[in-house]
């Protein structure tokens, strides 16, 4: 059984719906600023420290280049500097999301619950809980580290490496963010990882559209502070739409293939 898939534009539209709540429910959305501001201060401080020490770090990591031609050495280390900052940027976005969801679970549960109530239907009594949210946040941070390493390694490719790494990092990080954000309202309904994966696998383009838009907004300085509450709300809209489509008659039932013939006994 496969529900009709939502497209990239529909996924992006769920973030727009979440942003609209800033006009419709400003007090509710302001709750989401508290953990976002706190985590932003930590992440920005770490990024500033990295920028200040990146030259020394790269010089320490590349002693083999000390005897190179000065122009070649400086160009090589400049490319590494850009890649380190690019990877750190991707890591900071995913880390920001993971830490913010872990620290601010009570705040974002309130936003999620209000969106659920506005949509009607069956609404879970409670969210995933702080401990579960913290564990999910840790997994997200570890995934972000793996993404940053991937971006760095791809960026080492000559000529097109930096461009490909930036584009791929945006897509991969966007998918990771979308999966984590959308999993919250689904997990609150008792859906395990396999069930969530099966449901969301029917809407890959919607997940990509939503995640890439969230990721792009997070790359804007301090954009994550304002967008994080909207992303939580938008993810709830996306999850509910996926559930409604799966529960509706808008499905195609795949025919069951006939069983193979039983060979005669020898």
Detailed description of the structure:
With 266 residues, this protein is mostly helical. The protein has one domain (8-243). Helices cover 76% and strands 2% of the residues. The protein contains ten helices and two strands; from the N terminus they run E-H-H-H-H-H-H-H-H-H-H-E. The protein has helices at residues 8-24, 26-31, 33-61, 70-103, 105-119, 130-155, 161-187, 193-200, 204-219, 223-247; strands at residues 2-3, 251-252. It has a two-stranded antiparallel ribbon. The longest helix has 34 residues, at 70-103.
The overall pLDDT average reads 80
Overall 3D geometry? elongated
Please bin the fraction of helical residues: over 70%
Strand order of the biggest β-sheet: 1-2
Number of helices: 10
SSE order: EHHHHHHHHHHE
Q: In terms of structural class, how would the helical and strand content be classed?
A: mainly alpha
Strand content: under 5%
| Tally of individual domains | 1
Distance between the termini: 39 Å
Low-confidence spans: 251-259
Largest beta sheet, briefly?
Answer: 2 strands, antiparallel
What assembly state would you assign to the polypeptide chains in this entry? single chain
